[in-house]
Structures are given as structure tokens and as C-alpha cells.
Amino acid sequence: MNTPNTYIYFRDDFEKITQQFDPLEVGCLAVYGYSYIEGVLRNFEKNNPNAGLIFYVTAWTVHYLPSYGANVIAIIMQDEWSREAKYRDKVGAVFRTCGLAPSLVPTLKHGSILELSTNVLSFLRTVSKDGISGRIRSCLLKTQGKKLAPLYDIPLGFYANEPVEYTPFDERPNILSFAGSIQHRVAKTRVPSPKTLARQRMVQALQSCIANNPKLPIVYRETSCYKASVQNTASYCNEMMNSKFCLVPRGANLETFRFYEAIRFGCIPIIEHCPDLPYYKNAPLVKLNDWSQLETTLLSLLDKPDVLRQMHQDALAWWHNVCAETTIAEQLSSHCFKNTHVYAS
């Protein structure tokens, strides 16, 4: 078979968009904030230009696609509820960010009773949004002998994509940086969101660290939302490129652009909540048991410059070997063409 691949950006949730795109055209998905998956598909297309596959890149749409078939590949970006796609019996494969299942256990290790309670409520809300019904449907289809498309984790990747000049680690002027929102902007109830409560604890620890160590060059900018943080992406990326550490708090769920943006620049991530995803396991990051450990952990690491330089190199290597667009494109090819459920030439 020598049929060109087809690439379509499809949304039917908060907005309705059906747009065919050419991944070889640089910037074709930038307006949606998906330059990373654009790069993955660009590399895939260069290596497999006539595989006859139809790719749907979507975000929150898990109920249906415009067309189906064993040659249809769904790529679900940013479904923070980790719902089960209801078209698994109609497509060849499903790739998704944010994890294949919602996380609860990691979120119960930190915070007050209020924060723990809101995490439980958030989890229940998550699984109620087709999380249960979709999985029950898949289980029933399996008992009926239906073949379901395999599910694969892929990295969320970066959102901020302004090219910046590399700054050697020892020449970076800032010890630590964070630019982002604290209040969850879509919260509509009086009960604070898990994101808000976790980030409030982080800010409290950060401000205490700044007050106790006024000579440490720390950059802290609070914004209204994540997009506002990276609206001037040159500034956001420059801050990260010129920092040795970056705070990576949780968002609406545990997966976050910020982790990938940090390691891409060799900036060492400091994390409290760590998603149970392959791209975080054994990654060169600083894992805190609680944000209250920030100051003591940071000061201890600053006394070990050789260790920090190695972590910096490990972060760059982790991005290149585990998360970069070329690496994920190779995995995409492997999963698509080695799985007999996918039609390929």
C-alpha cells in the first residue's frame, strides 16, 4: 500500500474544530499549544510517509471520532480526567497523555485534612465523568470477544516553545525559578481545588525560603493562569534556561507541561506530587515528601555542586533519550506497526 497518511485536529467538547493539517508544516499546531505532538508527528511522517494511517489529535474528546477503522490512530492530549475512550473497539490504537487512569494514592500523602478530602472528591468527580462507564463498557466488550485497541502513555511535552540560547549550568544566574498561577481558575465552588491547596503550601515554603535566604537569586512570579505565565514565552523560557532548579507543582491533575519544559533546558525539577508515568520513573528530579522540605533540601543540594552538574546533564539526557519528539516518534512507529490490530502497509 502506498497511501499518504492523514492528520486531523479534532475537538468536540469546549470548542468544535475539525482541521486537517500537515505535520511537515512547522507551526501547524502551535495555535493550539501542541507544538510538541506536532514535532512527534513530523518525525513520524518523515520516516513513514505513506503508511495509510489516519491520525486524530484531540484533547478532551473521548466519546467519538469522525471516522473509524483499524488504520485510525487517536492521540488524546490533556484529558485530565483520564477517561476511557469509548471508541477503543473501532480504532487501531489510542495514545494519551495524563496517564491511562486517574491518580489518587499519590495525592493522599501530603496536605491538611481539607486537602486530602478535596483530593478524594476530585478523584470521585473524575471517575464519574465517563471514567467508570467507559471502563465498564470496555470490560463488557472484552467479555463479548471484541478486540480493543491498545492504550499507550505518551508525554504531555512542552507548551512554551520559544527558542532560547543555551546557558551553561554554572553560568545560570538564578538558583530557582517559578512562574505560574496559584488559584485554580476554573474552580466554581467555595471548596478550594487540590491544585490551589497544594500550590498554597508550595508558595508558603518558597516565601519562607526567600525570607530566610535573601541573598539567594530566586525568581518568583505569580500569574492568573498557566497560559498567562507563558504568554511571553521568551521570558518564561529564558527564566527557566537561566535557572538551576524549577519548582514543578501539581496542576488540575499530576501531569504537567512544566516538568518537560524544565528537563528540556537542563533545569532540575523539584516535585512533590509525582505522576505514576514511565516518563517520571527514575527521572533526574528532586522529589520532596512535602513542600515544607524545600528550603533544607535546596540548601543541602547547593553544597554539592558536582552532584548538581551531573543532575543537569542527566536531565538533558533524559529529555533526549526518553521524552524528545524523535524518541516518541520511534515509539509511535513501533506501537503502530508491530501491533497486528493496526492496518499498515
Q: Care to give the gist of this entry?
A:
The protein has two domains: 6-157 and 324-338, no CATH class; 169-322, Glycogen Phosphorylase B (Rossmann fold). Helices cover 37% and strands 17% of the residues. It contains nine helices and eleven strands.
What is the total number of structural domains?
2
Q: What structural class should be given to the helix and strand makeup?
A: alpha/beta
Reported for the largest beta sheet, the result is:
6 strands, mixed
Sheet with the most strands: spatial strand order: 2-1-3-4-5-6
Counting H and I runs of at least 4 residues, what is the number of helices?
9
Low-confidence stretches: 340-345
Number of E-type strands: 11
Average pLDDT figure: 89
Helix content class:
25-40%
SSE string: EEHEEEHEEHEHHEHEEHHH
Radius of gyration: 21 Å
Strand content: 15-25%
Report the principal-axis shape.
Answer: globular
Distance from N terminus to C terminus (CA atoms, Å) equals 5 Å
